[in-house]
Amino acid sequence: MTEETTKILVTGACGQIGTELVPELRRRYGRENVLAADIREPREPLASSGPFVLADVTDRAGLARLIERHKIGTVYHLAAILSAKGEQDPQRAWIVNVEGLRNILELARAYGLRLFWPSSIAVFGPATPKENVPQETILCPTTIYGITKVAGELLCDYYFHRFGVDVRGLRYPGIISSEALPGGGTTDYAVEIFHAAVKEGRYTCFVREDTVLPMMFMPDAIRAAIELMEAPLAWLKHHANYNIAAMSFSAGELAAEIKRHIPEFICEFEPDPRQAIADSWPRTIDDTAAREEWGWRPRYDLKAMVEAMLKRLSERYALMPRVRAEARGEGEH
Known about the structure:
Elements: E1 7-11, H1 16-29, E2 34-38, E3 52-54, H2 60-70, E4 72-77, H3 83-88, H4 90-111, E5 114-116, E6 119-120, H5 144-163, E7 166-168, E8 170-172, E9 174-176, H6 189-199, E10 202-205, E11 212-217, H7 218-230, E12 242-243, E13 247-250, H8 251-261, E14 266-269, H9 274-279, H10 288-294, H11 302-327
Parallel strand pairs: 1-2, 1-4, 2-3, 4-5, 5-7, 6-8, 8-12, 9-11, 10-14
Antiparallel strand pairs: 11-13
Helix pairs in contact: 1-7, 2-4, 4-5, 6-8, 6-11, 8-11
């Protein structure tokens, strides 16, 4: 059973990763073969790019009907409550992140589905090494988001060994995207700063200037998920917990790189409670297992990512006044 012959379901499709993963899956496997799902209606261009359904991952019976109706064979399960929002409502974070995943795993067992599920560097904590975190290490998160991700890794491993479910996943670092707005994560500053730089020329950052975290540009994050899912199962010694890395930089280094392109840009640093979460996470990641087992290699470093982000956002915001004018009937005639 492969993506080429069965349909793919993407839960949490309106989130940061789903917004860009869905179009890439549709490009590879066909528009009608990728079903996007979320609890809220999609925006353009996702709304018109292919089939979409409203779905709640905490409703197992509803998901089962959806899988049967659409002949789903593979699921990219992205629906989750992220770190900062999770601290505001820990109970909901547990229900969505853990019970939602368990529903998907049970359905994968029942219907023979292949499953991708993203873990996170949030599984690490104060007792984890800060530099070159190894694949096998102490998992001691201090956030409910991190706790749900540790639970998720263990659940996925259990379902693989106990029931033979082909479930795969990555411990994503902070992900930087030009297409989706931040979704309530601690690394959101690394996305917000670009929008603020292009629109207003200044930004107030909620972590310290010297805060270093592992990051990844969205094109690399999307490619990593698909490459892992396309790898032969026999290659994989791990399953839903691959360390994966691309670049690490401080908030100050990011601001300085943006300033090279926008000299008048001003960034101030006023840490808020998210600083404590950032301080509990590592600075650099050892992703040797991903590199050796399925050939992972990042393509973007800080310089290339900043250049691509500023180019894309500058083009988008330059178009917005014209689009608004045309909507009011004030365009050229």
